[in-house]
Structures are given as structure tokens and as C-alpha cells.
Amino acid sequence: MEPQRSPLLEVRGNIELKRPLVKAPSRLPLPGTRFKRGPDQMEDALEPEKKRTRGLNTVTKIATSHPRPPALTVRPQTQSQTTAPKVPKKTGPHCSTAIGTVLKNQKPGPAVPAQKPGAAAPPTLGGKKPTKRPAWDLKGQLCDLNAELKCCRERTQTLNQENQQLQDQLKEAQQQARALGAECRTLEGELARVQAQAEQGQQELGNLRARVLELEEQLGTQQGLVQELQKEQVGLQEERRGLAARLEEQERRLQASEVALSGSQAEVASLRQEADTQAALLVEQGERLHGLEMERRRLHNQLQELKGNIRVFCRVRPVLPGEPTPSPGFLLFPSGPGGSSDPPTRLSVSRSDERRGTLSGTPAPTTRHDFSFDRVFPPGSGQDQVFEEIAMLVQSALDGYPVCIFAYGQTGSGKTFTMEGGPGGDPQAEGLIPRALRHLFSVAQELGGQGWTYSFVASYVEIYNETVRDLLATGTRKGQSSECEIRRAGPGSEELTVTNARYVPVSCEKEVEALLQLARQNRAVARTSQNERSSRSHSVFQLQISGEHAGRGLQCAAPLSLVDLAGSERLDPGLALGPGERERLRETQAINSSLSTLGLVIMALSNKESHVPYRNSKLTYLLQNSLGGSAKMLMFVNISPLEENVSESLNSLRFASKVNQCVIGTAQANRK
Ligand code: ADP
Ligand code: MG
């Protein structure tokens, strides 16, 4: 493909092409100069060869040589007149011949005498003649004149011819000049075009120069950039080397790791195999564990049944500071058949019959009352020891057996201490309720490992004078004795619920502690209006336990009830009945009625009677699901160590003994 030529180059090419014209003899004007030559010069410039053959040159030769007739120059002065007329004849033809020859040959003849003008004098009449005819020789003069005239005429003729020729040539030259003029205009046009092209070229050149500058600038920038990039490249190369070294290191490590990995993979494979075996074993163990758990529950229940579904524990509180020390032997704790190592189960109360002694004047005889219970706790027994004995029973609640624990006894015998604990938050003095709940939470967590999930919902109410009040009431209801009703949870439902009472889900000890604290506050508020009301009311803490084994589709639910009963003391029948005492009597009657109803319910259950008088008191009605056939019951009979309370202590012990004789039918776990 031919590269595009710039207009400037084109112009130069054109100029080069025409250069021979400039070198021609006629000389074309230099570029930029204007034509100032004549047509002949133009002709010379255009047709140098033609010029040489043209007559114009010849004319010039003729004009310049303009020879005189040789006869005039060579004729001797002594020549006669007779020969004189011949001279023109000789010169004439010679002259015309010479001209003719010149015209004919069209080239300068070297033999033409005109080339040596100084050699012959011009044959003019007025000129100085070398020889002068004598004045008398008129004829001769005439002859000369004629000859000269003739010669002149010939010359005139020749000149006319010559003139004619010249005119022709002039015409031709004019034509040529016109042609040249046209050509000149064409060339001028061409020149103008070329100049325009040149200007355009210049402009383009300028543009190109600007572009070149721009490009140079760009080049500079690019070079700077290149330098920067080179620097960067150097940096990157450094980095690359570093990375390559690191890569090598990593590759080495990778190889080592791969080796280790392949080793580990083999190990993993063997471990997986082992894990599979272990998993299979685990499943098997899980199955076994579940079986064992169910077996444990069964055996546990059997054990509890063997211990009795109704158990009675007797607890004697210690003598408090400031209280009279009882006489020795007032309360005795005889050892069991296994000796002192056996936990005590018996209690002897010695009561002196002061009336008989006074009457006979002899020392008052003492009557010994022996009682036997499932367990007897002497005054020094700690809360932990007591709880240890009931922990297994609490466990039964988790297994789905309703459990009910009562604290029975006269006011001040230690019921509240047993159930809730001593004052001051001493952990050692913690009662059964916080201990039982802590135990439940921890066992539930353990059972969680076997797939069991448990939830606990607590409620705490008091029953005073056959009215139920929520001890967990908060806000505006706090301290108000807004009455609550015991209702079935739903139509046909066995479950009982207390209206207006809070049922609080609990999952940790702290929550339980907060609830007990709230109950204490609520009791304290009530105490301001009715003195020692807490002693005259039953406090019922209930925990609804729900367990589920999702994997096996097992569910169990049972209530755990911890009841701090109202003081069991009776009113002294000998006391005069004032208005306050009347109120107290009504309270006492209500308490006695509910306590005796409790006894009756237990009896009825024990005797498997068709009618169990649950409805005879709010307490038994509320607790009906925690008593009965499938329930496990424990009664603490709390005894005061004081001799002055012996009568009430004996009453309590007798009531407890009756309960202890009861056996409630085989308990069934509430399984679904
Ligand atoms: P109740 O609730 O039966 O009326 P309390 O539980 O209030 O009796 O006990 C009366 C007093 O005896 C309280 O001051 C209590 O701290 C104290 N008390 C009861 N039992 C014990 C015990 N086992 N150890 C120490 N103090 C006790
Ligand atoms: Mg109390």
C-alpha cells in the first residue's frame, strides 16, 4: 500500500518535475518571482531546441551583421566607371546570395563579411568615400547612384521580404506568447494551487508540530510514568522475590503439612472408624442408660413405697436462747435396733402428772409417751441432714410422682424454719424449699444429658380462715388480701389452678430466692393488720414440674407441694372469751377444721374410702392432686423442746402418729 503523500511533498515533486525548464537557456523564473520576460524568452524557456532552428536568430544575425555590399568595400578606387555598374551586380547578387544563403541555411555563416564590420566602410552616400568620382563624372556618379539605388531597391525588397518574414514570425511569436500566456495563467493557477497546498501544508505542518510538541509532552509524561513504573517494577520485583521466597517456604511447609495431613487423614480415618464404633456403643449405652434410668425410677419408686407413701418425720427444734432449759429426760431419743449408728426413729416424751402428785403429796409421777416415726431429728440436727432424708422424695417428683411435704406443729415449733429456713440468709439455715428446688434444678440438668428437658412453674399462696391469698402478688396487688379462688384449669381437667395468683416459671435458685423474699414481704405487710397471721395460716408453695423426652416421646408432670401449716395449738377452753378471743377462736376453729380435714383425707385415702373429703377445706381441695393414690406424702411434725409446750407437743405427736399409720395405695407415676 502506497503511503499517503503530504501535499507539501506533492508540491515539491511538481517543482522537481519542472526543474529542467528552469535549467533551460530561457530560464524559467525562480519560485516566488513573477514572469517578467518577453514572449521570446518564454519561448526560449519552453522550446530551447526550436529556438536554434528558428529564423529569429537568423534575423538577429542579419540585423547585427547587416553587411555592406562587399563591392563597396573591396572595389578599388581606381575602378573605371564602366566597370562600376557591374560592381553592384557583383555585390548585389553576392549580398542577396549571402542573405539568401543565411535565410536558406538559417545558420550564421562564418564567411559573412558582416562579421568584420570594421574591415569595410559602409557604402552610404553621405559617408566618406575612399574614392570620389570627379565632379565632372556625372555619368559615373549617376551610374554609381543607380547602382546604389538598385542596390538599395534590392535591399528594400529584401528588407520588405525580411520584414514580411519578421511580421510572420512576430505573429507566430505573438501566438506563441498568447499560448505561453495561457500556459502562464495555467501555471499561475497551478502555482496558486500549489501555494494554497503549501499554505495548507504549512498549516498542517504547524498542526503537526503542535501535535509533535503535544506528543513530546505526552512522551515526557509517559517517560516519567515509565520511570515510575520501572521503579514500581523494581519494587514489585523485590516484593515478588520476597513472595517467591515466602511461597517456597509455604510450599515447603505445605509439603510438610501434606505429609502430616496424609498421616492425620489416616489417623482421622481410624479415629472415624473408632468414633463410629464409639457412636454405636454410645447409642447402645444410651439405650442401656435409658433402660437403667427407667429401672432406677422404678426401683426408686419401689424404695419410696417400701419406705411408705406417707412418711412422718419428727423434728424437735433446739431450745432457743432465753428459753427455760427442759428438765433432763423430758425428751428422749432412744436408739434404734441397730444401736446409736442407726438414725433415730423414736421419741419419748415424759410428762409429769402434777395434779396427781399434788393430791397424793408424793412427787408427781411421770408418764412416758413413746412415739415412733420414719425418722426423728433431735434438736441438733442441721437443715442439710433433714434435706438429705427428703432428697430422694424430691427426686420422685422429677420422675413424675406428685410429692407433698407438710410441716405440722404448734406455733413456734420450727415449721417455717424447716420449710423456708432461718432468718438472715445463712446458707446453713436454708430450708427445704430452696434446697429442694436447687436439687431439682441440678438433677433436671443431669437428666438433660439423657434427653430430658424440664420446666418448673412456681406459685405460693396462703390460706387464712378459708380464704386463699397470693403471696407472689406484686405492684398494686402487693399486700392486698384480694381473694383467690381454686378452680379447675379447664373443663374436665384434673389440674387445679388458683385464680388471681401468679404462676412464675423458674429455672434457677436466684429466682426461687426472689420469690421467697417476695412472699416474706407480702406476709410482713399483712402482719401489720393482723398480728401473727402467718402462724394462723397455711402457706402452700407449689412447683409444677413438667419433663419431656422428645427423642422417645415421653412426658411426665407432677406437682411438688411444700406446705407450712398453721399452728396446730388449740385454744385453752378455760380462757374467758373476749371480743379478740372470739376472733381468735374462729381462726383456731378454721385451722383445726382444716387440719382435721387433712387428717380425715389421709385416713380416707389410707382406708381406700370411696369418698375423700377434699372439699371440706380449701387446703385439702388445693392439695388434692398432691395427695391420693399416686402421691407421695411426707409430714414433718415439729416439736417444741419446752416442757411448757408438752401438751401441744403430745397432741402433734398423736396426730402425726395417726398419719404415720396410714398407707396410701401404690403410687403411680403421672406418665403420659
Ligand atoms: P413456726 O413456724 O412453727 O411458728 P418458726 O419456724 O418460726 O416456728 O420457729 C420459731 C423460732 O425457732 C424461730 O426463731 C426459729 O428461728 C427458731 N427455730 C426453729 N427451728 C429451729 C432449728 N431447728 N434450729 C434453730 N432454730 C430454730
Ligand atoms: Mg411459722
UniProtKB/TrEMBL annotation:
ATP binds at G409, Q410, T411, G412, S413, G414, K415, T416. Pfam families: Kinesin (PF00225). It comes from the Eukaryota. Keywords: ATP-binding, Cell cycle, Cell division, Coiled coil, Cytoplasm, Cytoskeleton, Endosome, Microtubule, Mitosis, Motor protein, Nucleotide-binding, Nucleus, Phosphoprotein. GO terms for cellular component: centrosome; early endosome; microtubule; nucleus; spindle. Residues 75-84 have a biased composition (Polar residues). It is found in: Cytoplasm, Cytoskeleton, Microtubule organizing center, Centrosome; Cytoplasm, Cytoskeleton, Spindle; Early endosome; Nucleus. Residues 309-662 form the Kinesin motor domain. Residues 25-54, 66-133, 324-372 are annotated as: Disordered. Residues 149-309 form a coiled coil. Binds NUBP1 and NUBP2. Interacts with PPP1R42. Belongs to the TRAFAC class myosin-kinesin ATPase superfamily. Kinesin family. KIN-14 subfamily. This is Kinesin-like protein. It comes from Neovison vison (American mink).
